[in-house]
Amino acid sequence: MSTAAVADTRPYHHGDLRRALVDAAIRILEREGPGALSLRAVAREAGVSPAAPYHHFKDKGELLDAVAHVGWEALGVAMTDAKARSSAEMGSMLTEIGVSYVQFSQDHPALYRVMYDCSRDKDMLPEGIQDKEDSAYCLVRGAFKQVAGDEVADMDVELATIAAWCAGHGLAEMSMFKQFAPLKEAFGGEEGFLRAVLSHLGMFNRKT
Amino acid sequence: MSTAAVADTRPYHHGDLRRALVDAAIRILEREGPGALSLRAVAREAGVSPAAPYHHFKDKGELLDAVAHVGWEALGVAMTDAKARSSAEMGSMLTEIGVSYVQFSQDHPALYRVMYDCSRDKDMLPEGIQDKEDSAYCLVRGAFKQVAGDEVADMDVELATIAAWCAGHGLAEMSMFKQFAPLKEAFGGEEGFLRAVLSHLGMFNRKT
DNA sequence: TGTACATCAGTGAACGCGCGTTCACTGATGTAC
DNA sequence: TGTACATCAGTGAACGCGCGTTCACTGATGTAC
Questions:
Q1: Residue B144 sits in which domain range?
Q2: Quick one: what percent of chain A has pLDDT higher than 70?
Q3: Distance from residue B5 (CA) to nucleotide D32 (C1'), in Å?
Q4: pLDDT of A154 strictly over 70
Q5: Rounded Cα distance, A111 and A34, in Å
Q6: Which nucleotide has the least CA–C1' distance to A16?
């Protein structure tokens, strides 16, 4: 059965329009960027009337929150994978996590932007990033704890985590600029460049 | 003579509307944030018809560019001051510059945002940040060169500059979140917190 | 010094646009009896 | 098993809004003679 046929026989009730709207929003982000992300555009992309989203989200903000949520979860998965990979290879765990973070931002620049924009609107880090057990932030802090050992004060672990997060976020935002192209080439591509910059950031250099 | 009287006798021709529009835009940014920065709002704030700006700027983008330009110049001044101050006190020059950078972003959060948004739209760092002799970026690179001495390779100075810039930008963007409030208090306020985080970033620790 | 005229820098009304949201509606679904 | 009915999840038309931009215009200024 072709996609068209499926579309033709699409029932009046969608089934999981909530999820479909979030997916549509992400598709728009990847294709046209954050500027194109209106509620109407999302409904259009999902093949539904502009009023339909209101049965699943209070307003535009709530839809955006849901999109950001999906983004943070995907980022968490990417970082967890990187951590697992790195400990197997006994390389620098922190660098691998950092690289995966920045690479995520480069693979999904518009989504990454929305993730932070939603947080900024509330002056709050996303969804208890510091509290939840399996949050991306806790993953980084856990890695620092593991690398540092027990004799290091909690406060220093916290500060190192914040410093690393800031550096990662800054690198994510900066590395999109064209001016760095020659430098990237000199280091054999994006990843080489990322590793070179990260190696200049003290707290990424500790090894397990 | 009161301000009202000045306003009443305001001549048909403005004198320096271009500059007045940029000032009005910055006032809007400080008061209402980047979301409120429309061309019409700027004209309104400057007390002029919505068509007037078109005699001074090709379009909205060009006005925004002018605003960003003013921002980058102000940031450059703040950083130059910090550098001068620090060498007088023989403290860590790089930390002082870093602190001044982040403080600027906190004093003018909306302007700081516009400065980067304008660059992002073009995928280019602002106004030849890397080329111009007195750019903020060159100031940082110069500081690194001075601290590192002649034996360090140019490439390493470049990478350290980029790493520092990323860290500063990341810290600027992160430190606005409410979650860091308790940590800031623990370090005796904003500046103490900034210094604590920066001290965890390797390349800020070198002293003259 | 006075006058004609080109140019500059404003006005204000209007354009079309896409937006977020609301509304009365209707088709589909599930449940009680 | 059938039927009545409440509820759910859509439709599509409409709302008012502020936006960027254009237009014909006009008042002020400066310059040539």
A1: 3-207
A2: 89
A3: 37
A4: yes
A5: 8
A6: D9
Quote the CA–CA distance of A119 and A58 in Å, as a whole number. 18
Q: What is the pTM assigned to this prediction?
A: 0.92
What is the interface size between A and B, counted as CB pairs within 8 Å? 114
Q: Is the CB of B51 under 7 A from strand C?
A: yes
CATH number for the domain harbouring residue B30: 1.10.357.10
Average per-residue pLDDT in chain A?
89
The integer distance in angstroms from the CA atom of A32 to the C1' atom of C19 is 17
Q: Look up residue A69 and give its two tokens.
A: 């949520």
Q: Which amino acid is at B133?
A: E
Of A123, A156, A171, the CB nearest to B178: A123
The three-state (H, E, C) secondary structure of chain A, written as one string: CCHHHHHHCCCCCCCCHHHHHHHHHHHHHHHHCHHHCCHHHHHHHHCCCCCHHHHCCCCHHHHHHHHHHHHHHHHHHHHHHHHHHHHHHCCCHHHHHHHHHHHHHHHCHHHHHHHHHHHHHHCCCHHHCCCCCCCHHHHHHHHHHHHHCCCCCHHHHHHHHHHHHHHHHHHHHHCCCHHHHHHHHHCCCHHHHHHHHHHCCHHHCCCC
Q: Do B163 and A125 touch (CB under 8 A)?
A: no
Provide the domain count of chain B: 1
Probe site for chain B from A179, A185, A193, A205 (most B CB atoms < 10 A): A179
Q: What is the mean pLDDT of residues A130-135?
A: 75
